[in-house]
Amino acid sequence: MDKKYSKEEIFNKLCEILEEEFEVDKSLLVPEANLFTDLELDSIDAVDLAVRLQQFTEKRISPEEFKKIRTLNDIVETIYKLL
């Protein structure tokens, strides 16, 4: 990927994926939202989300980094560092 996305663009894309593919209520999509407790994603959903984000960024989140992710903001920060 040649383009560097802003954190806001990454967050917006993340929200779009969560709304469209995981049917998460838009009102729940705030940076502090916990993927598991607030958005009620399970581990399989989290893996599916990682795959979708990999398609978007053309970068792979390492398993070590992936295990640290708890909130939407964690995802944004992790992707931002990858790009």
Describe the protein's architecture and organization.
The chain is mostly helical and 83 residues long. It has one domain (7-82): ACP-like (Non-ribosomal Peptide Synthetase Peptidyl Carrier Protein, Chain A, Orthogonal Bundle). It is built from 4 helices and no strands. It has helices at residues 7-22, 43-57, 63-68, 72-82. It is globular and about 30 Å long. The chain starts with 6 loop residues before the first helix and ends with a helix.
Low-confidence stretches: none
CA(first)-CA(last) distance = 8 Å
Oligomer: single chain
Give me the number of helical elements. 4
Q: What is the helix/strand order?
A: HHHH
Structural class: mainly alpha
Task: Count every beta strand, where a strand is a DSSP E run of 2 or more residues.
Answer: 0
Write the CATH architecture name.
Orthogonal Bundle
The biggest sheet amounts to: none
- Global outline: globular
Note the main attributes of this structure.
83 residues; mainly alpha; Non-ribosomal Peptide Synthetase Peptidyl Carrier Protein, Chain A; globular
Describe the protein's topology.
Blueprint (H helix, E strand, L loop, with lengths): L6 H16 L20 H15 L5 H6 L3 H11 L1
Helix pairs in contact: 1-2, 1-4
